[in-house]
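Q: what sequence does this backbone want?
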């Protein structure tokens, strides 16, 4: 699923993404770490994976 990075705190490696319908969904450090990212900027398109309502992976969207 695709989303847009909304917030990101580099100290906690957690933040929120916005789904395409505008719904904010939080992610935690394990989801960020699973994607292998070093930094995330608001506005970046990302790919997420979810297990129910919990985001399990955040990575950059590649085309």
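A:
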């Amino acid at each position: 699923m695709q989303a847009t990075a909304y917030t990101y705190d580099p100290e906690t490696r957690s933040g929120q993404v916005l789904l395409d319908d505008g719904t904010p969904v939080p992610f935690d450090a394990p989801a960020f770490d699973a994607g292998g990212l070093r930094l995330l900027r608001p506005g970046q398109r990302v790919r997420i994976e979810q297990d129910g309502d919990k985001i399990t992976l955040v990575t950059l969207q590649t085309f």
